[in-house]
Amino acid sequence: ALRTRNVFTASTLDQMPKHVSSGLLFGDAHAIPVPDLDRTDHLLLIGANPLESNGSLCTAPDFPGRLKALRRRGGTLTVIDPRRTRT
After folding, report:
1. How many CA atoms lie within 13 A of 54 on its CB side?
2. Where are the domains of the chain?
3. What pLDDT, in 10s, does the model give residues 16-45?
């Protein structure tokens, strides 16, 4: 209907940046690290809103509960995001 060869999916905004950064950092776009949320003492999130996405690619159940546990054990959470979110 639009007669364009361009494709848009949620991946262009949500997944591709993670694959590109993994490729640049680790040499493999599919080598996506999984953070050790239960043992970390500082979690840095850049451009993420895990309370809305339930952790997205962090692949951990009950992500909001894990963030609360991080704070309870004295850990810190830093969120760098250009827009104010619930996280």
Report:
1. 4
2. 1-33, 35-87
3. 888 888 899 899 988 877 788 899 999 988
Side chain identity, residue 3: R
Strands 76-80 and 42-46 turn out to be parallel
The pair phi, psi for residue 10, each rounded to 5°, is -60, -25
3-state secondary structure of 85: coil
Query: Which element (helix H / strand E) includes 44?
Result: strand 42-46
Task: Please state the pTM of the whole predicted model.
Answer: 0.61
Residue 56 dihedral angles phi and psi, to the nearest 5°:
50, -115
User: How long, in residues, is the chain?
Assistant: 87
C-alpha closest to that of 57 among 7, 87, 23, 17: 17
Q: Cα(40)–Cα(87) distance, rounded to whole angstroms? A: 18
